[in-house]
Target: Protein GrpE
Amino acid sequence: MAEEEKKDDQQEKSLKDEILEEMTADLKEEIDSPDTAKLQQERDDMEDKYLRAAAEISNMNNRFKKEREQLLKYDGQKLATAILPVLDNLERALQTEVEGDAAESLKKGVEMVYSHLETALKDNHIEEITTEDNKFDPNIHQAVQTVPADADHPANTVVQVLQKGYRLQDRVLRPAMVVVAN
Model:
């Protein structure tokens, strides 16, 4: 009886080995087939497309984040640029000589409006570009006239400001129009 069991076990093992060999051969044949290579190439192509798309989305998100930061940083630039001529006109009005109580009262009102407008601009990070007796800088100045240099005004210095310049944060909204010693 023991011998019969050994024979059955050997037959069973050889049957298992035979099935295993057939399955291994089938798998190798399947792996080595041209269809598998084609599928692997398609998978690699898809993976490459996926990685490229993921990188592109990441780049777009970074670009949008930077643009959003720029918009927030320079928020109000258009309004400030539109208000600057009003500020100039108020300055001109304040430079006029007035006579009489009514005119003085009106000038006082214009001064109040001017100071409130100036405060509102400063509160929104809009500041005047200082230029008197400074070196000429083409990044913040616009030379509209030149005069000969003298002892008081060396070459390439601002002699007179014709129109004030303003900046928002680190961006020039309007360059100062100046006379430069040459």
In short: The radius of gyration is 41 Å.
